[in-house]
Specification:
0% strand; globular; transmembrane helix
């Protein structure tokens, strides 16, 4: 009953051939779109303003720092994803390298990341959607516009738009990855076009004087903003969750992860530079639509509606990919016996984890509708940074314990790239607020309780007597 019993790589691959398999339908283009769909959303349309208050015009450096942490971790993810093309992302990789107990911890950690990220973004989506509706003279009843207590001075009971959008996404994911990827690809193309239009329109209104002083809060401000805007990068790891549904994992997964991360980092740096060049950074105080504000400063109000549309589509694809990743991790944990078997049942027609999708989607929708989530960005960040740290450790461990494995993609610069990923992630974690650590430890305590009461005894490895 060892806490650190492991599944071999061969056993992981054999699991995918024992009936509960998912449909392979994704190529490099789809995976790149999946990654961009998850990354570009709340970060670029909302957090750029909040980050500017912490770093000033040096926000561009904050995005580079956060992007470097992700880049080093992405190279480790790419090696693992190509080596073990099995659903479950870093949870699965940890099971093979660090043992069952660590795999459970990281799986429970990813539940926090993906589920709460979906709920958090749904609340932001609701705000932009209601803003768009108001342009057409449509106003929802006050009670259905936000979660209870979310808006001071107003009697709000239920965030109806947030609930509905998550349930629509749940329906798409339950129907199948082919339908979901088509929807995602279309929305990603539109929102990238909106971002590119903002760049083309906004660059002519930049005033270099607004970039002075460039670093008003010093490096502390840059690093604090990096820890916050790290939320903007959450999602590229969801590409790895699609391993079991990828046509050619050894080639397509590394490309999808790296391409999506590189494209989004470039767009973040350019957009944040243009925004702080148009608007003095102090004017972002209390603003939840910084891109629209920049356009208003530039006198381009006609384009604000397009930005609202881009934000809505951007957040929609983030929720789609986050919930997708969540269902695949639940599927993998259930297939290993760590969660009830019902979560790994595959629909005979759609070849999707049907029950898990509807269960998790409903929970995410209710959380977004009933709980104010304005403080959850950092909580989601700490879960993600912990996951990135563990996968980097896993690459180092596996290179030592099983050096002769065939690796379709090899992380370059060993061992320095994984070590840099670990160092960057731990450094950013250290910049998060103490309340974030407290909430994270409470969540982990609940996970440990579930593991020792249920999962350890019902694990497939436990039943095999290993």
């Amino acid at each position: 009953m060892s806490l650190f019993r492991k599944k071999s790589i061969d056993e992981l691959l054999r699991t995918t051939k024992q009936g509960k398999t998912l449909k392979r339908a994704l190529g490099t283009w789809d995976l790149t779109m999946l990654g961009i769909g998850a990354i570009i959303g709340t970060g670029i349309f909302v957090l750029t303003g909040t980050g500017a208050l912490k770093a000033g015009p040096a926000l561009v450096l904050s995005f580079i720092v956060a992007g470097l942490a992700c880049a080093f971790a992405a190279l480790a993810y790419a090696e693992f994803a190509a080596l073990v093309p099995v659903s479950g992302s870093v949870y699965t990789y940890s099971y093979a390298t660090l043992g069952e107990f660590v795999a459970w911890i990281i799986g429970w950690d990813l539940v926090l990341e993906y589920l709460l990220a979906t709920s958090t973004v749904s609340a932001g989506w609701s705000g932009y959607f209601q803003s768009l509706l108001s342009g057409f003279g449509i106003v929802l009843p006050e009670a259905l516009t936000a979660a209870p207590g979310a808006v001071p001075g107003k009697t709000t009971l239920f965030n109806l738009p947030a609930f509905i959008i998550v349930m629509v996404i749940t329906f798409l994911l339950a129907r199948g990855i082919t339908e979901s990827k088509r929807t995602n690809n279309i929305m990603v193309v539109i929102k990238i076009a909106v971002v590119l239009m903002f760049i083309l329109v906004g660059v002519g209104y930049v005033k270099p004087a607004n970039w002075q002083p460039f670093m008003p809060f010093g490096f502390d401000g840059v690093f604090s903003a990096a820890a916050l805007v790290f939320f903007a990068y959450i999602g590229f790891d969801a590409v790895a969750a699609a391993a079991e549904e990828t046509k050619n994992p050894g080639r397509d997964l590394p490309r999808g992860i790296i391409y999506s991360l590189a494209i989004c980092t470039l767009l973040y740096v350019i957009v944040s530079g243009i925004m702080t060049g148009i608007v003095p950074f102090k004017k972002f105080e209390g603003v939840d639509h910084p891109v629209s504000l920049a356009l208003q400063f530039a006198g381009q109000n006609w384009f604000a509606g397009f930005v609202d549309l881009g934000a809505i589509l951007g957040m929609t694809t983030v929720m789609l990919v986050m919930l997708y990743g969540q269902t695949r991790i639940f599927f993998a944990m259930s297939r290993d016996g760590l969660l009830p078997k019902g979560f790994s049942s595959v629909h005979p027609k759609f070849r999707t984890p049907f029950g898990a999708t509807w269960f998790l989607g409903t929970i995410a929708a209710l959380i977004g509708a009933l709980i104010p989530l304005d403080k959850l960005a950092e909580l989601v960040n700490i879960g993600t940074l912990a996951a990135f740290t563990l996968v980097s450790v896993g690459v180092l461990v596996l290179r030592k314990t099983e050096p002769d494995l065939h690796r379709p993609f090899r992380t370059p610069g060993m061992p320095w790239v994984p070590l840099l990923a670990i160092a960057f992630c731990l450094f950013l974690i250290s910049k998060l607020a103490p309340i974030t650590w407290m909430a994270f430890f409470i969540w982990m305590a609940v996970g440990l309780l579930i593991y020792f009461v249920y999962s350890r005894k019902h694990s497939n490895l436990s039943k095999q007597g290993e």
